[in-house]
Amino acid sequence: MGKLIIHKLLVSYPDIQTIYLLIRDKNRTPHQRLVDLLETPLFEDLRKSKGPGFLTWALEKLTIIKGDLRQNRLGINEGDMHKLKGTHVVIHCAAHQDFNAPIDVAVQTNVIGSEELLRVAKQMKNLSSFIFISSAYVNSNQCGKGIRCDERVYPLNFDLYKIIKKTSRQQPTEEAIMSIVKQYPNTHSFTKALAESVLISNQEGIPLVIMRPSMLGPTYKEPFSGWTETLCACGSLFLYMGLGMVNVLPGDPNSIVDVVPADLAVNQILATAVHVGLDFLNSRTRPAIFHIATSHSHPLRWGYCTQTAASYWHRNPPSRSTTSNASMVMVPTVRYFHTQFLLKYELPARAYSFFSNVMNSPFHQKQASKVKNMVSKSKSFVTQDLLHFLENEWIFNTTHSQPIQALLNDSSPKPHTLDFTWSSIDWHFYLNYFCYGIHKYIMKENVAKPEPHEMEFDRNYGRDILSDNSDQVMMFPDLRFAIFTGYNVESPNSSSESQNRIKMEVLESDRVRQVIRDLANAEGKNEAEILKDAELVLERMESKMNLTTMRALGYMFRKIWRKLYRQINVNNSGLENLKKLTSAGSAIVYVPSHRSYIDFLLMSYILFEAHLPLPHIAAGEDFLGIKFVCALLRAGGAFFMKRSFKGDLLYSALFTEYVQQLLLNRVPIEFFIEGTRSRTGKSLQPKFGLSGIILESFFSGQLDDIHFVPVMCNYERIVEEDVYPKELLGTPKRSESLQGLIDARYILKQDYGRISIKIGEPISIKQFSGDLKQKVEEGRMETKPGVSKDLDFNNENNKKFINEKLGHKINYEINQKCVWSSVSIVSAVLLTYRFGISKDDLIDSMTWIQKYILSLGVGCFDWLLEQNPGALVDRGLELLENCIFRKKVGDIICVDSDPESIIVLASHRNKITHFFFKESAVLCAFSAGVWRKGSKKDAENDEKAEESTTLDISDLKAETQFVHDILQLEFIFKEDPDSTEDFQSTISGLISRKMITANSSMDLLTLNPQARPQYEFFCGLLWPFLESYWVTCLLLFQLHPEGIPISSTLERCQWLADNLHKQGKCFSAESISKDTLNNALILFAKKNVIVVSNGKVSLTKAYKEDPKLFSDLVLKINRLRKRVNFNNDTEDITSILSKFPILSKL
């Protein structure tokens, strides 16, 4: 630390007059030692900035005082003592470098040496502060979890001077003294505690300031990341991990470890020295004590730091490492640690020693001796040096430093040169550089700095919760996981007492009581009767979470997940955000995507595994008929809701009050904003019912804030992959039943690839509504009629407006967390060339798409960056083997013509379509524009005409807007984008990628013929959707004047789409999809093309009276779709109908 203080003073205070350095002789003279110091990498920035004159300049500032802490009056001569009399600040950071030095040696240096320095300081007439660098662990004799240590002096439980006397070099160490020392993690912290007491006892006339840093790690940013010369306990652990000497530890991975970057610690020390004369410090009773710690404001946990370190060493194994796959598992007890260490390290070492002696091989005997010593040293490190920190947890209060930090922040809009904001530390970045510093400066290996993309990939990719290596280091790992996970985490509403209390709060609430009174009056019943009905409804609805059942489920699903999936990755940054919210006591609502029934189970499992409170999950009543499954789900946190509350006032009041009581009791809630599972692979439009109920707690002022956490569950394959295509093709959905669950056991033999869970940034409704209000007031956001500019919560229209905007925001954030998967990209390419593509061409397509995706910078790249394009294609084809077949000649890969196979491929493709929507919309619009302009050309010249025809940019923009308008229900768009800016940026991107060209004035655009593969790919993403809308229009042509039953409209759409596809009039088999056709009907109703009345669908009056209005709509959509034998857009409605005689059968 002393070297960093010198560097910081020279950098930040170049005009400082004199810095006195106490340096002792140590093999070299003090002057030689100082010159050596100034030539180290630490001062490289100063050497560069000052040039050849750096050494002269530095030596003018730095004055050597020859001395030694172990001598009387520090061994300082009279001449030097006279120089020191004008000193203003003393920073005492010297201590014995060995944290486990013999007690007598540590006392001599750390205690007696400090006392001698205090005596010298008393002769300094201008002294404003005497800063003693102590240790946060001076109070570590307080043992336990969550021990809060304040910035004050704790009385010692022994006679201070008696201990000092007995531990002097002339006295033998007594057993009684060693029993006191053993209460501390090492002799360093023990002697620092002694030194504090000695200094306080003799501080009269001295402005004593005690600074207590916790574990000092390498530098965070200054002068560069990762510099270190010493190792704290955590650093030593990282070193042992890197060498492969330790991969198992006793302790709780969720326990806090307090680490501080050395440069930020130096900043706090100097900032305190600068401001020590201020009134707020002078008003304190001396001494002023400050913790330098992160556990209070920005805690780091053992599990996170060891996993991050393991990831670094896995990417950068040291040359001396015994393994290329660094890992770490934390076991719950020391006994388990000893057992596993014996099996994994000690027994193999003994066996090696035995066989080396049997073989009588000097070489192997020497190696066996080294291994034995290494194993012994590793075990000693864990059980003696580290164990105290693993078994206990301290939270060091840092409130004394807050006024200083506030002054620094107020002095400049930019970060102050002495800034020490602990909450600004990016732990993932720092831990990577922590290991890099050990690798480079301790191991002395030439290693490259951690690359930003590597760290970001690691951060986003997270860790695989199925591969924690526990099966390698403990017996019955799944059972131990179920028993010990979350044993110190309290899940709200998981006891019968709390459940009964919430039930009574619901039934006695004003809302429910009022409804009961109203119903009693309206129906002529007794209130007690209705109350009994309410109790039955609530009993059917409520969750009965049981942690014992949850542990049993945790055991079972841990085994099931490993059968089904290769990996389940969870992003670390998301989990850290959740831990902060939980620690702050926030009301949390989890909002996952909904692609599979697995979603119900995954979120609870992940939170259980991460030692976080388990959520109550809103589930439909579908499962109530399966008693066994229903009981398990209810015990797992599910509460059940009807699909609709319409007209049921009692149910509505009970459900609303139940949800709000859960939130008020800080029970996390989970619900699916899409309402139902998406069968098409893309996100569904949000539903606003349950979110409105949740928000009412905020609008009414019962909750100050609610945090909504968007979560994306990314699957390489879903377990419903065989079921969804049938449902989308019209097969009625099969009701959930126990027999159906039993029949589904075949999935345990399938390979469903990987899952990547992306936990997004929490959305604070308080901040969101405030931002929304500002946008409305400034006119940057359009509102609906009845919405006031102030967005007052007493206005129902305002609340509805906020709820809808929040729903779209959550859905958009979920969508942005989609992971680019090889399966999705391969599916998209195969559907573009569904009649066949060679393996080489498929790899070429993967190559340019991969580059294009990385240039877009959207989505998550976890699975995309793992392998080269060839390997990604192989991975995709492996998981799609049931949907494709190969032609032996030329290694041609073709799509199975079966509609179910095509629907499966389309669902994979749809997962990524929204990322390409802007480009796809522009290119489909471009196709429509050039088609319209070239429609009079003969068919054989048509393609050439399209490639050579230019298009006015204003026409292209109008066509693009129409694509957006038609497909508004298919994709999730960002709320209120600037459409002009969005369009222009898309055009600029396509030009820069040479897919289209523009004239000098940028008003005429041309499709580049060389970009035909890209054009086909992007258009192919939207053509199937446009075809579904076109088919729906054709059906609406034939609507009977009196309309057709709404129940048969969708069936007729599917029948028409299927027959047109079979006749070659439709290119895309996936256009038969029921979901897309249904969206088309909803859109045309929204656009006042059709109307639903008396259970029938019919055209609105305007479209009945003007057939050309409808034919224009059909032709406009037809121009956008892939051309299939229908390319004349000038015909009247009669001619159009004649092209499709099948319409007459409707």
UniProtKB/TrEMBL annotation:
Record's Gene3D superfamilies? NAD(P)-binding Rossmann-like Domain
Q: What GO MF terms are annotated?
A: glycerol-3-phosphate O-acyltransferase activity
One GO cellular component term, please give it: endomembrane system
Q: Has keyword Cytoplasm?
A: no
Q: Which InterPro entries match?
A: FAR_NAD-bd, GPAT/DHAPAT, GPAT/DHAPAT_C, GPAT/DHAPAT_LPLAT, NAD(P)-bd_dom_sf, Plipid/glycerol_acylTrfase
Record key words, sorted:
Acyltransferase, Membrane, Transferase
PANTHER family according to UniProt: DIHYDROXYACETONE PHOSPHATE ACYLTRANSFERASE (PTHR12563:SF17), GLYCEROL-3-PHOSPHATE ACYLTRANSFERASE (PTHR12563)
Listed name of the protein? Phospholipid/glycerol acyltransferase domain-containing protein
Q: Which organism is it from?
A: Arcella intermedia
